[in-house]
Amino acid sequence: MESYTQTDLQRLVTQIRRDIVRMVHACSSGHPGGSLGCTEFLATLYFKHMTTKAPVFEMNGIGEDLFFLSNGHISPVWYSVLARKGYFEESELATFRQINSRLQGHPATAEHLPGIRIASGSLGQGLSAAIGAAQAKKLNQDPQLVFCLMGDGELQEGQVWEAAMYAAAKKINNLVAVVDWNGQQIDGSTQEVCDPGDLEAKWKAFGWEVLVLENGNSVPDVDQTLSTAKNLTGKEKPVVILMKTEMGHGVDFMMGSHAWHGKAPNDEQLASALEQNPETLGDY
Amino acid sequence: MSILDKFPIRDQKDTRSGFGEALLELGKSNPKVVGLTADLTGSLQMGAFAKAFPDRFFQVGIAEANMMGMAAGLTIGGYIPFTGTFANFSTGRVYDQIRQSIAYSGKNVKICASHAGLTLGEDGATHQILEDIGMMRMLPGMTVVVPADFEQTKQATLAIAQHEGPVYLRFGRPKWPVFIPESVPFELGKIQRLVEGSDITLAACGHMVWKSLEAAEVLRERGIAAEVLNIHTIKPLDEEGLLRSLEKTGAVVSVEEHNRYGGLGETIAQTLAIRKPCPQEFVAVQDTFGESGKPADLLKKYGLDVPQIVAAAETAVRRKA
Questions:
Q1: Is A227 on the interface with B (CB under 8 A)?
Q2: Which residues from B are below 8 Å from A128, CB to CB?
Q3: B60: contact with A, CB 8 A cutoff
Q4: What does the alpha-carbon distance between residue B11 and residue A275 come to, in Å, rounded to a whole number?
Q5: What's domain A6-276's superfamily in CATH?
Q6: Chain A residues within 8 A of B105 when measuring between CB atoms
Q7: What CA–CA distance (Å, rounded) separates B1 from B194?
Q8: Cα separations (Å) of A153 from A182, A194, A257, B4, B175?
Q9: What is the pLDDT of residues A66-109, one digit of tens each?
Q10: What is the pLDDT of residues B124-150, one digit of tens each?
Q11: Residue of chain A nearest B94, judged by CA positions
Q12: Torsion of CA B47, B49, B52, B57, to 10 degrees
């Protein structure tokens, strides 16, 4: 795991970007924008920081670090990472969002896709599940950590703040929450839709240790911030990383706009996106 | 001999206390059982468990959505969470959390819900949920259990811990007769036939099982032999047990402390429509909300008392002709 160099991770990131755009293009649906924005994070988390038994998957995750994707719509990036990690064949990525596939539009457990422990997509629920899993780890005297990624628009869901209040009150210190702070949601910028205000102050006020990651699309920066976050676990407070990313990062015509939140590229757009992300580890 | 002589009232106890006692037993016998509540430890009678097993009890505060999500997460580490709050806040308030994080995700969570129905009483309609059985029954994979008395709630609580998969366990607030004979076995998913009869089947759940026994005695005095079924497991329905009764009686009255839509009555009707069409009358709340009042007065006002069950039975018997 530790043998992954920054160069290895960067090559992986480029390949995952190719997987993402090819997956959403093939089924003409899905969410490329947020997926591309979180590619550096998920690649670095799974290939550099998380202890797992991959390719073996056990639902109970005992002795492993766990990851929960609360903003389930960015399933393309997660599926690509899971496949590249060896949980299932990369060729299965071609079935994304097709009938009879294990790769549902939003992550699910009903089809038993290895790597997924709970369904997500209806927003706001992942942090609660992550807290429950973190509590279970404490009961099991399992020292591994629980990670949970949420969208910033998702913070408009009240349940997130129920969970945030609980985690601080009960000192859930084996948990690292991450907010994909791309400032975009379906209807426009988060500021226009319903301004989340000072996120850093809000999480601090809720009793969390807050790290701000200025460039979540930089592998070294993600790497460093994850190391810092892990070092902050086991103390008094739960840890949250407010991770600034660019929606659609790595594909110029998708970058920085909410327009590609949930839209698939056409043939020409796919070709352009692939040209910007040349094959590194082999397409599925 | 009166039918009721066969069902001596051993005590008057609230069904929620049966839940609390069983949860404590489970705490002792199964280290994987954990409890969660949203600021209703006392109302749910979870205090003894909380005191005995503080590490396995999670006081979540008034945050039911978070509680359901946490329960789902706890199952991942191998635990069997029992959530406890009022039926209203156990279902309607958190339907989407149950749907996605528990039912669709196939999580082994036991949703334990007190103060269901009109017999919650004085708090009024905001808290008297009459739609919960319907909501929970509609979720694929959800088991729905509505025990009839204190002892049966204990038995049901112990039984659902053995069942792998999500369960909705519904019970109530008021003191109620403890009447089901110890000789009648409880089995999850199996109807209990409490009284044999050939003219009409009274199929009831929860508090209404006792009322149905009282109604059966009135019917007996009027020359109608009622068979009384306790359908404590509404989903999955014991279809064979129901049909065995209907083969004899040919008509049924469903009796439930729930809206007429979505509950036990509709469950029965669907089975009968396919497998044995026959007259059915519905003793249930007639698509209204409740109101504040004493439980007994509310049951009378909303048509869930003995005279209404008797009248419905007589109507159903007439319709057989």
A1: no
A2: 65-70, 72-73, 97, 101
A3: yes
A4: 78
A5: Thiamin diphosphate (ThDP)-binding fold, Pyr/PP domains (3.40.50.970)
A6: 108-110, 118-119
A7: 15
A8: 9, 8, 14, 61, 47
A9: 999 999 999 999 999 999 999 999 999 999 999 999 999 999 99
A10: 999 999 999 999 999 999 999 999 999
A11: A159
A12: -90
The list of chain B residues with pLDDT below 70 reads: none
- Written as six digits, the tokens of A65 are 């670090």
Check if B89 contacts A (Cβ < 8 Å). no
Per-residue pLDDT, A257: 86
Note whether B52 contacts A: Cβ–Cβ < 8 A. no
Short-list B171, B12, B186, CA closest to B84 = B171
Contacts of B27 in chain A (CB under 8 A): none
Q: Is the pLDDT of residue A2 over 60?
A: no
Whether omega before B236 lies within 30 degrees of 0, making that bond cis, reads: yes
- Reference B41, options B31, B25, B54, B28; nearest CA is B54
Question: B135: closest CA among B217, B32, B30, B235?
Answer: B235
- The ipTM value here is 0.97
**Could you read off the pLDDT of A131-172 as tens digits, one per residue?**
999 999 999 999 999 999 999 999 999 999 999 999 999 999
Tell me if residue B223 falls in helix, strand or coil.
coil
pLDDT of residue A135: 98
Q: How many angstroms away from the CA of A253 is the closest CA of chain B?
A: 34
What are the tens digits of pLDDT across the range A167-193? 999 999 999 999 999 999 999 999 999
Question: Which of B56, B66, B99 is facing A163, going by the closest CB pair?
Answer: B66
pLDDT of residue B16: 97
**Chain-wide mean pLDDT for chain A?**
97
Chain A interface includes B54 (CB < 8 A): no
Interface test with A, best of B53, B70, B99 (most A CBs within 10 A): B70
Quick one: tokens of A43?
A: 């690649």
Residue tagged 């599925």 (tokens): A284
What are the structural domain ranges in chain A? 6-276
H or E stretch including B254? strand B252-259
- Cβ <8 Å between A159 and B58: no
CA distance A149 to chain B (A): 15
C-alpha dist (Å) from residue A276 to A262, A270, A280, B253, B302: 20, 10, 12, 70, 69
B55 vs A contacts (CB less than 8 Å):
139
Rounded to an integer, what distance in angstroms lies between the CA atom of residue A249 and that of residue B212?
Answer: 66
Chain A contact for B258 (CB, 8 A cutoff): no
B64 has catalytic annotation:
yes
User: Model's pTM, two decimal places?
Assistant: 0.97
Report the gap between the CA of A146 and the closest CA in chain B (Å): 11
Say if the Cβ atoms of A128 and B69 lie within 8 Å: yes
| Domains with residue ranges and CATH for chain B | 11-178 (3.40.50.970), 189-320 (3.40.50.920)
